[in-house]
Amino acid sequence: MLIINCQKLTSKMKGIILAGGSGTRLHPNTHVVSKQLLPVYDKPMIYYPLSTLMLSGIKDILVISTPKDLPRFEELLGDGSQWGISLSYEVQPKPEGLAQAFIIGEEFIGNDNVALILGDNIFYGQGLSEKLQNAAGLKSGATVFGYYVQDPERYGVVDFDEEGNVLSLEEKPDNPKSNYAVVGLYYYDNKVVQRAKTLEPSERGELEITDLNKVYLENEELSVELMGRGTAWLDTGTHDSMLQAANFVQTIEERQGLKVASPEEVAWRMNYINSDDLKKLAEPLQKSGYGDYLLNLLKQQKVTA
After folding, report:
1. Which residues contact 109 (CB under 8 A, 6 or more apart)?
2. Using an 8 Å Cβ cutoff, are 208 and 188 in contact?
3. Residues ≥6 apart with Cβ < 8 Å to 266
4. Helix (H) or strand (E) holding 194
């Protein structure tokens, strides 16, 4: 994600990162650790969805994971105060669908609107911050994102008419009606909690996010924003896709000299923390080079000021 010249808007919306599941497609790597704690090039996977929510202007975030892994996320991320945000944690005893996140997070959500992002999704692109902040500013209904893929049968698929209105949503269809997949990033009004409770489990025993989106569609409350060709969407659920994501991040960072999804940098550029705070975060990280990068941001600021 690009974080230069972001709008620095703060949303009243809350955010949820769903970082559960058993990660069986990544065994043996995930036999003893959550896949969202594995590195994608130079930082833990969960830094990427966390940074996406922060770029949306969301500062109150709930992390949902398994009973075994949740303490490790707490150890890694803390309460979020170092980044000027608030992090909470809840257990998902067993994976029973993405929409279950809203039921688990009911008390956290309260009377607010909420965004959900999957813990293995990475987004990057020019103008992304503005799209995210616009979605986070919704007053009612739901906003999801469509992304053109060559293998739509692997995803939830959205179909449009000639005027761009949503006609249908299908979960992993054998014969997709379009090439637009719904990505793992969703913004909802507060009705999402009660609507999630009305869902019936699918044939695989899960509360499907596509079924939840269909409820919004049936009520004419679903908006689908398309991510253009200048935006990258990567999921990291397989060995190949993790390697591809790591190579992508490495290429971007080495070519531009800018980090992808550094929570410290996002927090600083979004004015969640000040320059003194950034310096304190950077100094213990200097041996890895990560801290030097953050300190160089401060030096560059002084040069351009």
Report:
1. 14, 16, 102, 190, 192, 193
2. no
3. 3, 6, 51, 54, 55, 83, 272
4. helix 192-197
In this prediction, residue 173 has a pLDDT band, given cuts at 50, 70 and 90, of very high
Q: pLDDT tens digits for 214-266?
A: 999 999 999 999 998 889 999 898 999 999 999 999 999 999 999 999 999 99
Confidence band for 16, pLDDT divided at 50, 70 and 90: very high
CA proximity to 61, closest of 258, 274, 266, 281? 266
Smallest CA-to-CA distance from 225 within 303, 127, 301 is with: 127
User: What is the model's pTM?
Assistant: 0.94
Overall average pLDDT of the 106-117 stretch = 98
Give the integer Cα–Cα distance in Å for 123 and 137. 19
What is the phi/psi pair of residue 144, to 5°? -125, 170
CA–CA gap between residue 145 and residue 233 (Å, rounded): 11
Alpha-carbon span 51 to 54, nearest angstrom: 5
- pLDDT score, position 5: 44
β-strand partners of 226: 146
